[in-house]
Structure formats: structure tokens, C-alpha cells
Amino acid sequence: TAYLWLLRHPVEGEEHIKLELQARGIFSSRVLFSDFENDKVYYLVRTSVCDTILDSPLWSAGATGLDAYWSGVPIIGLAGDRTVERLGASLMTATYYNRSQLRERFDRGQTMMPPMMAVDMKDYEDLAVATQSDPYLKVGIRMELLRKIAGENFDVDAKPVVRHPLEGGQFDIQ
Q: Which of 171, 168, 166 is closest to 60 using CA atoms?
């Protein structure tokens, strides 16, 4: 069973969201709302309960994406044209899945994109369904992310480069 977990902000929006979901035939009990959490440790533990974070295409992950990353939660993203719409793509390109077995299993013909970065809205939806339907992806991608956090294959001495097609190719940053 899937749930949508949203920040209760503004509080007045909660009832409107529930009514809209009910109008579309979705049980409002499938939506969880939580308040801001000032205790960072509790917040990261709470975040780690999620299977996947859906990065908003209009206002990308930023600090929330980093929090998800450090909590070991994979992010599905769809980059846009504005900088604020590409933060999640930058985070994923810098940190995410480069293991060939995951790429082979999850190849959608987009070799330049991180496997969890969608190319359009249909792909975004398909990624969300696939990561919940395929146990290998659901666990495998998360385990790879946790290995990255633990330091495996994380080269801190690597020369920083821009490798994302949205950023115009590959350039040395010095």
C-alpha cells in the first residue's frame, strides 16, 4: 500500500488536499501530514521510513533532497528549465547510482541521466510505480545509496566536473 506523505504547511491546505483526493476517488487516509520537525536527528529518522521521495518538478529537492540522501532514501526527479527545478538532478548526478547491474536492469535508453531521473512526466510516473513494484529496484537502489553514504565508491579526491546534459556537457570546475 502506498501513501503520500506531505508537510502540513499551510495547515489550511490539508483539508483542501483531502477533499480533492476524495473527489478523484482516492481515500484521504492514504495521505499523511506531518509538521515541521526541529529535532534534526528525529527528522532524519522519520524521513528514513519512506521508500522513495518524489522530487517536485516545479520546486526541486534542495535541502530536503540532501536530508533524504543522508537518510538513505532514494529520490525520483524530473528536472525543469529553471535552476530551482534542477537541484534534485544535480544531487542525483553527484551521488546516485552508477552500478552497472542497476543501470542494466533499469535502462530506459537515457544513458546520460541518473537512473532515477525522469525524462518526462510519464517517465516520472513509471519510475514511481517501478520502484514500488520491483523488489530488486526498491531494495537495490536504496542499498546502493546507503553504500555511498558509508563511503564505498565515494571518491573525495575526484576532480569535480559537470556531467549532466542540462548543464551543457562536461567541463572542469576549478
A: 166
